[in-house]
Amino acid sequence: FTPKLLAGRKVLITAGPTFEAIDPVRGITNLSSGRMGYAVARAARQAGAEVTLVSGPVGFCPPQGVDRINVKSALDMHAAVMAQAAGADVFIAVAAVADYRVANAAEHKLKKDTGGIPPIELVENPDILAEVAALKNGPFCVGFAAESRNLEEYAQTKRRKKKIPLIAGNLIQDGFGGEDNRLVLFDDAGSHPLAPAPKSVLARQLVEHIAHLTGKH
Ligand code: PMT
Predict the structure, then answer these.
(1) A GO molecular function for this record (predicted)?
(2) Closest Cα partner for 154 from 171, 141, 134, 174?
(3) By alpha-carbon position, which residue is closest to atom 23 of ligand 1?
(4) Could you say which of 10, 31, 181, 197 is the most buried, measured as most Cβ atoms within 10 Å of its Cβ?
(5) Which stretches of the chain are DSSP H helices?
(6) 129, 142, 171: which to mutate for ligand 1, most atoms within 8 A of CB?
């Protein structure tokens, strides 16, 4: 691994889940641990980049030398990313962002004995990655896609829809939560399957691929 692959470049990364409040103590979230995103942040930093990590609620400390911005909801993550995106050279969206948030989140705790089952109304969250990809002179954008089947088809569809040059696909059973993963990188040249490995190893391979695609190595 070449330590200076991304020297001097600004890399913005999202990681972890989001938490969409239903009331002050309840919410909608998912099982992303943050491990993959944190491994990418560490690898980018080790490659010499200046790294900002926008992180949903996870149980880890930020990797050494990485600036972390803590967020909870998809709207918080959107605001934090959009404030940083114009200044970034590379944006890597590893977070498992909730597609929907609760429109009618309650200010006070919902009580069980007050008139039936409370309805939860959902509204769509902004697509952070698609929005960054649409910026004029914006960063080189890398997405992730976690699927339970049809990995290539679904990941490529997401890549085209969000208009991004590179997406890393993983099966949910391989990637969500644990220490290891199996990634397939999809770009204009086709698909590049990486051997199953610890997330730290895959993160370095992803960083190498990004350095290669962005032309300086
Ligand atoms: O955190 P770990 O336990 O280590 O697990 C890692 C992981 C499985 C969560 C990770 O490797 C992964 O696949 N992340 C993406 C999960 C996913 O399926 O995302 P998506 O299909 O909802 O979105 C596709 C891409 O758009 C992702 O890059 C996502 O960050 C981005 N997105 C999605 C929705 C949204 N509103 N804004 C976004 O930026």
Answers:
(1) metal ion binding
(2) 171
(3) 145
(4) 181
(5) 35-46, 74-85, 128-133, 151-161, 172-175, 199-213
(6) 129
Is 128 known to sit in a ligand binding site? yes
- Compute CA 171 distance to the chain's CA centroid, rounded to the nearest angstrom: 15
pTM above 0.90, yes or no: yes
Output the tens digit of pLDDT for each of the chain's 217 residues: 677 999 999 999 999 999 999 999 999 999 999 999 999 999 999 999 999 999 999 999 999 999 999 999 999 999 999 999 999 999 999 999 999 999 999 999 998 877 788 889 999 999 999 999 999 999 999 999 999 999 999 999 999 999 999 999 999 999 999 999 999 999 999 999 999 999 999 999 999 999 999 985 4
The answer to whether 28 touches 69, Cβ cutoff 8 Å, is no
111's CB contacts (< 8 A; 6+ apart) are none
Indicate the domain borders of the chain: 10-213
Q: Residues with beta carbon inside 6 Å of ligand 1?
A: 14, 32-37, 74, 93-97, 99, 125, 127-129, 143-146, 158, 170, 175-177
Gyration radius from the chain CA atoms: 18
Domain 10-213 class in CATH: alpha beta
Q: Was 60 annotated as part of a binding site?
A: no
